[in-house]
Amino acid sequence: MKLSFGKKIDATSGNLTKILWKMAWPLIIINLIQVLYNFADTFWVGQLEDSANAIAAVSTSFSIIFVMVSLAIGLNIATATLVSMYFGAKDNKNLEASCFTAIILIGVLAVILAAVGLIFREQLLALINTPPEIYDYALEYYSIIMFGMFFAFMFYVLSGILRGVGDVVTPMIAGVASGLLNMVLDPFLIFGWGPFPEMGVSGAALATIIARALVFFYLVWYIFSGRHHIKLHIKDAKVHWHLAKKMVKIAIPASISQVFLTLSGFMLFARVNMFGAVASSAYSLGSRIDSLLFLPSISFSQATATIVGQNIGAEKKHRARKASILAIIQCGIISFVISTLLMFFPTAIFDLLFAKAGAPVLLLARDYVMIISFGYAFLSVRLIINGVFQGAGASMYLMFTTIASLALRVGLGYAFSYTALGIQGMFMGISISFVLSAIFMFIVFRKGKWLDVDVIKPRKTKKTQDIGERT
Length: 471
Fold this sequence. Notes:
- This protein is an all-alpha fold.
- The protein has one domain (16-455).
- Helices cover 78% and strands 0% of the residues.
- The radius of gyration is 22 Å and the shape is globular.
- Mean pLDDT is 83; it is low at 1-6 and 459-471.
């Protein structure tokens, strides 16, 4: 099995600023499309007669789904880390073996999580204090989405593999096609246009599943057809346990950090639900805007992770550190500009997309955005440093700093929500936590100990030798 390098970005040489932007812009598009999956669902169900409850139901469902997804994100992070490092080290055999190991492990995990999510769906919805008026909608949407969990997980891992070897264009094309299909199918399945039945919120969920399934089959065909510089063959598919151990070692702390990230959102949403359906809908709309505004930060974070991983694999730690600092500075500036504009012009996007949500919901959603936007630039710093730790395989650093940051977010959010400010106080507490956590993360980053984490270098024992040493 031969692995040839064609469409790739080798970050171990060349101008780092150019490489960073070359990797980041397709990732921005990919992440935009992923956000639009949820955004399109929210927009179209917002056109239903019972729009406020429908919007809250979709968002409530996703607060549970994100918990499920967070358990697999750790393995995706581990996969991208190993692939980028073995690519940087030009170790083709371990790169291929890492791909197969990740695909099999994440596929099995997806099936297990989907089954658990379906069996305990009623208990999970009750756990987050789902308001009675949206319960049936939430159960309906959530149940269908669970059936498509496998396709979502596999898209993430296949995209991560391609990104690790510097191919950010192929996942972008696949993501754009899938996102457009989802947006086109939504109104047909929700409202019963043409020959399609009127399915309401269930139609939004089904459209998402169909779109994700098609992009999954496309990426599988693309990678296994030999058209890509990663040439994998089904006959070689198996779990390489020495690499699985490496993945698990990275994945467990990374997954824990993601679980805490999701649980913090889970806890905050549960608190928001105590203020009623209007607050739930407003928080949901504000969170959708968050998803759009965080796109540059998340995309730069992913690009930085790949660059850091490739350079550490190539034993160029000084270059990995330089790339990290460049990403922090450039993304921080971008986020500051965006948040400043949003702080002064918070109403336009809500009026354009969510006019039917009703005045109470829109007014509270605008309050959310105006208050939270103060901390956006600081949050971008934390997200970039997350990417640095991921790329270096320093998942223990990622876990501890993430837990500390989220403890601040939940603690301050709850504390301020019990003041006279109420729900607006909660928004203020979250915004302040972004500032404090960014300062904390940067202090840890500056110490530089994350550069000393040894991920792919084999120990001098027979049991832990990599494939390349055995041949």
